[in-house]
Write a structure and sequence with these properties.
single chain; alpha/beta; Transcription Regulator spoIIAA; Rossmann fold; 3 domains; six-stranded mixed beta sheet; 10 helices; binds S-adenosyl-L-homocysteine
Length: about 400
């Protein structure tokens, strides 16, 4: 590719870009000029020859992810500026020099003007996930840039994109270190410790987006019998114990996750805490078990990744929440979440309404939860707001 190729949109399909929505859908494209392939930077125009933006091309539903709404070269200084802005926000949030927390999201894709790229920071290690070939091809450049900007705060960079790249991407996908090596790390979040294993763990290794919600659980946990469903490596369990819970059950269908939950509880409290781990399907456990709890966390994986399966997913959430409410003692509290992007806040609340109504019990809302500010959301890209939750109290 010599000169930057052009993509011209159909009439009327320029509106969302003019409002800074960063995606061009393949159906909006009228014609193209010049040759380009996946991962290349292309310029996008409307059918009146007006420049709209430039970004990475990717064959598929989202054809272009916009990097800039002004016409400028996408070179080293471009990336440096974007990365610096991302780090500046985390500085402002007090995350980069905190004694209490050394795990946070450093780059949150669209929310940081870098669609297709996620970087999480784990006490000296950056774990990178590319969702587009354009970002993936730049991984070495990005590793160097991170080192330059983060300085002594960064010892290693791990690329974990094999599972996040588009299925059909024509690139060799292999996870591994781009810089330094540190197979795992103990991180601190709000003063609590967690072992994180990014090569074997889910996502980049830890659900950083639940940091503030975990703290909220801590504040509700005094003297509570706690059930942490879909507990993964025990994030909510550790906070509940820190908040003075009477007992904690961590349940996850993954044995590896359950082992890590046990390890994380020991790391923080030794043997002082009454903790039980259960490797089992959450629905089976709720259906068959008789035990009642004062605090239940319901944090399942995304039941719906696409709109076409949303109705089924909503049924799944309803059933799950109904069962969880049934297991809650009068006065007890449920922290219930959905991380499905396609499930709106409104739908989530309706779901919780129906689940509550189906139990016949009195339920009220004590709080609404979301994702923390190191997971920023562009106001023009509401799809970036995926995490939503409710604190429900079951009254009788
Ligand atoms: N609450 C966790 C993150 C949960 S991720 C935290 O704060 O870290 C979702 C978890 O659900 C995964 O660990 C996955 O192994 C588990 N899971 C998926 N399906 C399940 C099922 N049917 N029953 C129990 N656990 C399940």
């Amino acid at each position: 590719m010599t000169e930057t190729a052009h993509i011209i949109l159909k009439s009327g399909k320029d509106q969302s870009l003019m409002r800074y929505h960063p995606w061009v859908f393949s159906g909006a494209i009228k014609k193209t000029k010049g040759s380009f392939e996946e991962g290349d930077v292309v310029k996008v125009y409307n059918n009146k020859d007006q420049f709209l933006g430039l970004g990475h091309y990717q064959p598929g539903t989202i054809a272009v992810r916009i990097l800039s709404f002004v016409d400028r070269p996408v070179d080293q200084s471009f990336w440096k500026e974007k990365f610096r802005q991302a780090v500046d926000l985390r500085d402002k949030l007090g995350l980069t020099d905190s004694r209490q927390t050394n795990v946070y999201r450093l780059i949150n894709a669209e929310g940081d003007g870098l669609p297709g790229l996620v970087v999480d920071y784990y006490n000296g290690t950056a774990v990178m996930q590319a969702h587009s070939v354009g970002m993936y091809l730049l991984r070495e450049t990005f590793a160097e840039l991170l080192r330059e900007i983060m300085g002594r705060r960064l010892q290693s960079v791990y690329n974990k994109s094999a599972a996040t790249l588009p299925h059909k991407a024509d690139v060799e996908r292999q996870d591994g270190y781009l810089l330094g090596v540190s197979p795992e790390q103990t991180v601190k979040e709000n003063g609590l410790s967690f072992r994180v294993n990014w090569s074997e763990g889910q996502k980049t290794g830890f659900y950083i987006d639940q940091r503030e919600n975990r703290r909220l659980v801590q504040s509700y946990a005094r003297d509570a019998d706690v059930l942490n469903l879909f507990g993964y490596t025990g994030g909510f369990s550790v906070y509940a114990a820190a908040g003075g819970s009477r007992s904690v059950v961590s349940l996850d269908s993954s044995r590896l996750a359950s082992e890590m939950a046990e390890e994380n509880m020991k790391l923080n409290f030794g043997d002082k805490i009454a903790h039980e781990v259960i490797s089992r399907d959450a629905f089976d456990y709720l259906r068959e078990g008789q035990r009642q709890f004062d605090l239940v966390v319901v944090d399942p994986p995304a039941f719906a990744k696409h709109y076409n399966v949303l109705p089924n997913a909503i049924q799944g959430y309803k059933k799950l929440n109904r069962l969880a409410i049934e297991k809650t003692r009068p006065g007890g509290v449920i922290f219930t979440f959905s991380c499905s992007q396609v499930m709106s806040r409104e739908n989530f609340r309706k779901m919780a309404f129906t689940a509550s109504a189906n139990t016949g019990r009195q339920v009220r809302i004590l709080g609404q939860m979301s994702q923390p500010p190191d997971h920023p959301v562009s106001i023009y890209h509401p799809e970036g707001e995926y995490l939503k939750g409710l604190v429900l109290q079951v009254l009788d």
